[in-house]
Amino acid sequence: MSDIHPGSPGMPQPVQNPSDQRAFDTNEGKRLFTQYNCSGCHFNGGGGIGPPLMDEKWIYGENPENIYSTIVEGRPNGMPSFRQKIPDNQVQQLVAYVRSMSGQLRKDVAPTRNDSMNARRSEQRTERETPRRSSPPPQ
Q: What is the pTM of this model?
């Protein structure tokens, strides 16, 4: 046995993730998930090269500190370490988004679906049109 252990013991880990309570942070986590190419392995949370993030099966735990540790430290067989590559506040936002994918956050802070996945365009993206009558008014 040796006193050498992987990782640094001084890395602070949040016990309560403040981003779990803020819709803005969860939506930022969603944006960062795409920006940092997490979808490349996790396929929008459905699993692929990396494990799925939308189900109830969690290999390393579903608590914020477990997900935080996974992102910062990495995991064997594929998950790289993002230590000193992603700022701490962005890691917390990613943690909130990952937890939201499996329904662990309140509905009022969970992000919405991408506009491209909806049946029609978002109301905010609809072009303004002048209303007109389709038939003459009844007499």
A: 0.71
